[in-house]
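Q: Please design a sequence for this.
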């Protein structure tokens, strides 16, 4: 579904979740606010970090400094937005306050951008959401990555599988450096079935990439042919390049 089609249907009157104006179409966002969203542009070819001017000093101008030194275990990371206002507020409302209208809107808009960038579907792909620990799921009531994954599976007509389990509850990642995040995630996940697929790994936000790195390595060790990470948003360098 393209953006014009998304906005053309008027099944019920829409109200913009950002400015509260009537939208005149079925999506809960007006055209002015869509234009002002922090769409992810000029991302690193591997980890999708939004590139800044200084990154162009690298011999590989479409790679961030980290990926130029060492490529991540996944073959690509695709995201729709930079994780900053108002995307951060919408994701918070979705994840922590069960605002499914915000989740539906974010997923639709992000996937419009992401699907056009996906490599050709070869027929051996599966969609796998990043798991959450049962304590987190009980508190939140759902897994936001499963919500996004189910939507993508319907669009691409691919099978959604859940071969991963978060076996250990981890400390909140928000204030940890990348090294601390990797340590925090050590032995936190397991794969319960062998894989012989190309995996689209689904998450809501990628910050330092520690979760994506950890789970990708686990999936490849379990037999996955390749892993492409798909996320709603990618944290910009000011917050995402933690050391």
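A: Design:
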């Amino acid at each position: 579904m393209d953006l014009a089609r998304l906005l053309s249907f008027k099944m019920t009157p829409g109200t913009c979740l950002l400015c509260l104006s009537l939208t005149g179409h079925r999506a809960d966002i007006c055209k002015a606010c869509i234009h002002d969203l922090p769409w992810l542009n000029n991302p690193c070819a591997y980890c999708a970090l939004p590139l800044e001017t200084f990154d162009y000093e690298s011999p590989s101008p479409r790679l961030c400094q980290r990926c130029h030194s060492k490529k991540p275990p996944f073959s690509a990371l695709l995201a729709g937005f930079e994780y900053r206002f108002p995307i951060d507020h919408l994701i918070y409302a979705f994840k922590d306050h069960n605002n499914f209208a915000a989740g539906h809107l974010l997923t639709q808009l992000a996937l419009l951008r992401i699907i056009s960038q996906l490599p050709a579907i070869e027929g051996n792909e599966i969609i796998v959401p990043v798991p959450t620990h049962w304590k987190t799921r009980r508190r939140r009531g759902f897994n936001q990555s499963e919500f996004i994954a189910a939507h993508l599976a319907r669009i691409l007509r691919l099978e959604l599988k859940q071969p991963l389990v978060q076996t250990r509850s981890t400390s909140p990642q928000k204030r940890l450096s990348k090294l601390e995040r990797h340590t925090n995630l050590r032995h936190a996940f397991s794969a319960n079935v062998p894989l012989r697929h190309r995996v689209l790994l689904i998450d809501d936000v990628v910050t330092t990439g520690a979760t994506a790195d950890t789970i990708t390595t686990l999936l490849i060790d379990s037999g996955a042919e390749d892993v492409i990470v798909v996320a709603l948003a990618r944290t910009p360098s000011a917050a995402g390049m933690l050391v």
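Q: Thanks. Anything notable?
A: Residues 3-10, 239-243 have pLDDT under 50 and may be disordered. The CA atoms of residues 56 and 62 lie 8 Å apart.
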